[in-house]
Amino acid sequence: MYETAFNQIERNLRAEEGIANELDYVEQISWVLFLKYLHELEAERQDRAELEGGDYEPIIKDEYRWDQWAAPKKDGQFDHNAARIGDDLIAFVDQELFPFLGSFRETATGPQTIEYKIGEVFTELRNKFRSGYILRDVLEVLDGLSFNTQAQRHELSELYETRIKRMGNAGRNGGEYYTPRPLIRAMIKVLDPQIGETVYDGAVGSAGFLCEAFEYMRTPDLTATEWETLQRKTFYGQEKKSLAYIIGIMNMVLHGIEAPNIVHTNSLNENVMDIQEKDRHDIILANPPFGGGERREVQQNFPIRTGETAYLFLQHFIRKLRAGGRAAVVIKNTFLSNTDNASVALRKELLEAANLHTILDCPQGTFQGAGVKTVVLFFEKGSPTRDVWFYQLDPGRSMGKTNPLNDADLAEFVELQRGQKTGLKSWTVNRADLDELTFDLSVKNPNTPEADVLRSPEEIIADMLARDADTADILENIRGML
Q1: What is the pTM of this model?
Q2: Coil, strand or helix: which one is 228?
Q3: Per the count of CB atoms within 10 A, which of 31, 295, 353, 412 is most buried?
Q4: DNA methylase adenine-specific domain spans which residues (predicted)?
């Protein structure tokens, strides 16, 4: 049913002139899905309150409720006579609904409340539907979806993830929105987060890391207290961009986290020297954006000043980690060998402030839509690095849209990493053996057979001429025998 619904929505959106690409599709489907989810959440809370003999004060009231403007009902059936349509529907959404919901940001008691998140979403996003008839069709399709059971949420989350992946593949900044889930799952298995620990992503994007960590930690034998801890006191994130913020919230909601602790802010605006113990976390999982060009006032927040966004995030993560905390961070492989002052200083700080115990070298094409080659840094804060275990991931095929990374590709890495065993694809580098001037951590597999020395052009030409001469002699001999 859900697959059919999503396909129907896609067919509708192809005719919508305000929806230009995959990014627009996910953005617009997100705000509508979000309101449908809120309506069902409020209905559930009201039923619970009535069973307990109490009252429930709804967050969204009157004509702004889903069952009043999006899907009015009469005798349990959709009431077409009461439903807004065409220009009237677009005018209501743009001029009344979005401003009303956006005002929640000012009246909410704090940034972690569902009211504040509603306000953030509808202040930052804009309705891109131009046809009220197409929007009406989409609303009617979505009204038939339900979030009531875990199985329903799981199916919806799978479909939503598929759309996020397509959105990531559609643009040059694909890695910004979609980190391959097999890679995320491998990173989580290595860190092994436990109930009671907090998990943080300061560049949350579509919240893939937090959603997968939730799935890993959600075991069948959780107590009610542990479940409450997992829901409200475990996953934290920050996201700068409006589109990624709403997608991240919706993704977490569909995975079963009712009120995601994601804050809409730029993590790099925080001065890392002001980070206190109460701000730190046990687990950090992240794929911060590469490149960029951060302003000078942002760079002032960091001891190692650089315009490279990922380098600033790495400094942020080192200081956001509690003593004994564990991190896994995706970064460009050039970080390991660049000789500029910022790269050298940051490698030195990482080696001294944390135990950089593992580096996973990812193959070209791991990230669709991104032209950079990446590595994953695994480190634990509190003691300096002594040995670095490298693993060179080689799936044995060219990576692409038709043959992306899968869990089986990473199974050997996860298994060998536990004991940091050496082999054809893995080796260990001692901290004492690093160059004290550059701290170069380049991926140089000592187990790879040395390639044959390439011959010079002169040698190749000489060999070709010699073979030609031999061939001519043979042909002359054959002609003499005829």
Answers
A1: 0.83
A2: helix
A3: 31
A4: 152-448
